[in-house]
Design goal:
Two copies of one chain form a homodimer. With about 450 residues, chain A is mostly helical. The first copy, chain A, has three domains: about 1-125, MgtE N-terminal fold (Alpha Horseshoe), CATH 1.25.60.10; about 140-245, CBS-domain (Roll); about 275-449, SLC41 divalent cation transporters, integral membrane domain (Tetracycline Repressor, domain 2). In chain A, about 65% of the residues lie in helices and about 5% in strands. Chain A contains 23 helices and six strands. Chain A has helices spanning about 1-15, 20-30, 35-40, 45-55, 55-65, 70-75, 80-90, 95-100, 105-115, 120, 130-135, 150-160, 185-190, 195-200, 215-220, 245-260, 275-300, 305-310, 310-340, 350-380, 380-410, 420-445, 445-449; strands spanning about 140-145, 170, 180-185, 205-210, 225-230, 235-240. Chain A starts with a helix and ends with a helix. The interface between A and B is large, with 131 and 130 residues.
């Protein structure tokens, strides 16, 4: 199946490259919009503008719905506001809100002003993009608890709700406060004269509209939901989030974690424009450079030791590098466990104890191995012991920093624990590794020559 | 809401720590099973055994359903096979299959033999754990296309299907081949005398039972599905995957990507036992160590140069480290883009061109900055030019290796592109960085003293 869809979008790209834009546009309008979106993401700008121009409004609107969030602003940039407003009028309101959030305020206002459905979309724009409110749709069905099952079914037949939001009916009181939910399955198997309040489930998991999207995703995942109702501060039902949006959030948050660990701005993508990529990668690279200079400064304090025993320079990168790697491994596991809420502050001593124990084992293993290699290579026992001790100690440093850096970022600075945790850990193991190794060598210098 | 649930599980942990196991067990049986699972994950083994013993079978079975996959074997280990079989008889068959997959074959067979529902679960065990077949449930509703809507509704009222699998009805022919799907929403709004074949959707996205779970998850995500039917090689419907399983897969695959980049075994977790963690982290750490020795060997070739100009040792870690960081940034973006199918082999030259351009910009920026610093620090123009050139060239190396390492892992070796991409990239930038820097210094040695 997946193979087939890749073939579909590849076919259309072939047509584009052969210059047959009309043929490509005709196929684009006919295939599944997810495949159409895939094509628009991959062709170059000129071809994209030409294709968007040729695809009729209805299929084009579907394709826009399936475009990846972070590429939409760039892809929609070339459509003039009036035409874009007409397209957006055909699109689910939560996606329209997403799109308008990403545009500069002036352009967003201009487009919203030209939309027929401006009144439905405008309330969604009050919510920040990365909150539950920013992901919800207002196309939900809410009914009163004193309605009968039969009346509810007649109502559904009349309004014919959207296929992708109708898994549940929401029962609300006279001022719109959420009281319970009824799944379509419950509705079908209930006696026609039962009241909704009798068959509804009272145990409703809901999200507040200002809840962070990561928390919201964790809620859906924790309780295995298919849709989650969104309520305001007064428990009034204001929208519904469907699980397909949650899937996107989970993936987006995972990507963010991965990127942050490597010190990359979160919206970076392989195919995004060059200046964008620079802006997203340079800052942490500059921090890393500054940090490397601190490490260089530490090394420079020991220049005369190195001048006398140049073999130290041979083992410096091994001790620092191995420590850095172990630290990043530990930090990665801690960051992920914090993100998935597998651990919290309460577990710090348990986790720290485990990682230090691991550090001792790794330190003994790699320390003694490296000591043996150093002895065979340089034939100096003191040199070998210094190498082994520095390797051992840097492994303990790696365990400590691997746990404490993400925990400190999270619980002291209230930041995302992934924030450049890799950069900080490498910094600590580099600096401490050089200091321990060259420091020990300087203390024992007379035995090394 | 999330805060509340954390409070719930924290409360119960307080009771456990206060020694009130009966009180804790009573609350455990009463709270949402997701919260109960959270408690079992966090308490120590003795308390866990005592709690499992005290919670009645029905709520205990629900809690087991919500335990995180990778912690289940360890948590269920202490339950004797007969009691475990009774618990598993109450659990969704796809989860039972998951659990049995994770046990040693002999224990799995023993438990399956004691289960009443062995016949329903056994067929699922044929499928590998990480395929669509390994995630599907067999609790789906399939009907024939010539049934009327009314007859289908009567049927649903009689069988009262599980709430969490009943979003769609699947229409099959006389030998069980999938012909179409009908959502409950379609069923409710259709005229009672319509035939299912008239109202069903023919455009069915399905997964083959042997499809890899990552591909399957991508399918669900690409087409925004809530449940995906699973078919065998003859297009016969054999199961259904619900989106909550897909969410778990997306998260699991993201975690795998993160871990692989850092060179960690994929099932590692912050709270998993020590020996487990060692087994999962040592291999790549050992590879990293071996690689570091290659870098050390390169440095050792230039020992006499370093003995004469010890300041080289000061700038070595900056040039290698900055290159490593830039390489990991690039590799991370490429790995994620490959995983999310944002790019494929077809895009290689476009991506490579962009990354080289980025490398030139970064090389000029950091090369000239580091050159100026080197000049101010050492007061030697030739030294400064060597530092700047080495930094510039290593940035280009980082761009090349950042793109080519994951691409090679994927398209030449057919491996997951994340497989230790970070380790390989650091290796290449370390070795090349040292070689370029110390090589240039050796060529110009007479101007450095």
């Amino acid at each position: 199946m997946e193979e087939e869809t890749l073939v579909t979008s590849s076919d259309i790209r072939d047509l584009v490259e052969a210059g047959d834009l009309d043929g490509a546009a005709a196929r684009l309008a006919a295939v599944h919009p997810a495949d159409g979106a895939d094509v628009l993401v991959h062709v170059d700008r000129d071809a994209r503008v030409a294709l968007i121009d040729r695809v009729p409004r209805e299929p084009m609107a579907r394709i826009i719905e399936y475009l990846p969030d972070e590429r939409r602003p760039e892809i929609l940039e070339d459509i003039e506001p009036g035409a874009l407003a007409e397209l957006l009028d055909e699109i689910d309101d939560d996606i329209v809100a997403d799109i308008l959030h990403q545009f500069p305020a002036q352009r967003a206002a201009q487009i919203l002003g030209s939309m027929k459905r401006a009144a439905a979309v405008a309330p969604l724009l009050r919510h920040a993009d990365e909150t539950a409110g920013g992901h919800m749709t207002r196309a939900f069905i809410s009914l009163h608890g004193d309605w009968s099952v039969d009346r509810a079914i007649q109502y559904l037949r009349r309004v014919r709700p959207d296929a992708d939001t109708a898994y549940y009916l929401y029962v609300v009181d006279h001022i719109g406060r959420l009281e319970g939910i009824v799944s379509l399955r419950d509705l079908i198997i209930a006696p026609p004269d039962a009241r909704l309040s009798d068959i509804m489930s009272h145990e409703v998991v809901s999200a507040r509209d200002d809840m962070d999207q990561e928390q919201m995703a964790r809620l859906v995942q924790r309780y295995d939901l298919v849709a989650v109702p969104v309520v305001d501060a007064d428990n009034r039902l204001v929208g519904v989030i469907t699980v397909d949006d949650v899937l996107d959030v989970v993936e987006e948050e995972a990507t963010e974690d991965i990127y942050k660990l490597a010190g990359i701005g979160v919206k970076a993508r392989a195919l995004s424009p060059l200046t964008d990529s620079l802006r997203r990668r340079l800052p942490w690279l500059a921090v890393n450079g500054a940090v490397a200079l601190i490490a260089a400064f530490v090394v420079s304090r020991f220049e005369s030791t190195i001048a006398q025993v140049a073999a130290l320079a041979v083992f410096m990168p091994v001790i620092a590098g191995q420590g850095g790697n172990a630290g990043v491994q530990t930090a990665t596991i801690i960051v992920r466990a914090l993100a998935l809420e597998e651990i919290n502050l309460r577990d710090i001593f348990r986790v720290l104890g485990k990682e230090i124990a691991l550090g001792v084992v790794k330190g003994v293993l790699f320390g003694s191995a490296l000591g043996v290699i150093a002895y065979l290579w340089q034939g100096n026992g003191t040199f070998a012991i210094i190498v082994a001790s520095a390797m051992f100690l840097n492994m303990i440093v790696a365990s400590l920093s691997g746990v404490l850096v993400p925990m400190t970022l999270r619980y002291v600075f209230k930041l995302d624990p992934a924030t450049a945790a890799g950069v900080f850990d490498t910094m600590i193991t580099d600096i401490m590794g050089f200091f321990i190794f060259l420091g020990l060598a300087t203390l024992m210098l007379d035995r090394l020559q």
